[in-house]
Amino acid sequence: xxxxxxxxxxxxxxxxxxxxxxxxxxxxDPSCGCCEAWIDHLQDNGFTVADHVVNDMxxxxxxxxxxxxxxxxxxxxxxxxxxxxxxxxxxxxxxxxQPDLIGAAVPxxxxxxxxxxxxxxxxxxxxxxxxxxxxxxVLSEYPGD
Length: 145
Fold this sequence. Notes:
Layout: H1 8-13, E1 22-28, H2 33-44, E2 47-53, H3 57-63, E3 75-78, E4 81-85, H4 89-96, E5 101-106, E6 125-131, E7 136-142
Parallel strand pairs: 1-2, 4-5
Antiparallel strand pairs: 1-3, 3-4, 5-6, 6-7
């Protein structure tokens, strides 16, 4: 039997990707360019995206129980859980493994988060998980420059 040996960077390249294509619904405003860039981030990492362009994002956020203070420019739904803002793929995968959480959010629009890459600058940001009881906890922290 012949084995194919791949260089370490090739093996690690798919580490944060979904093992199989995962379906995710993304709701966004028609004029938002960073939302399209975040969708590219999802697709580049093995997600199948249903892109829903809507004019009333407030209703979408209210329907999915997203606390106002955790809001961002777009909202996604996977496995019945919300994903608010520029959440990295690795954290979406973590969210799926935590049955006590109803969603995860990256509040605001931090520069350097997925879909918000704008040059060399990176803002520090946190991914916040929200439980069924409304409790919040930090799932991940990303340092800035």
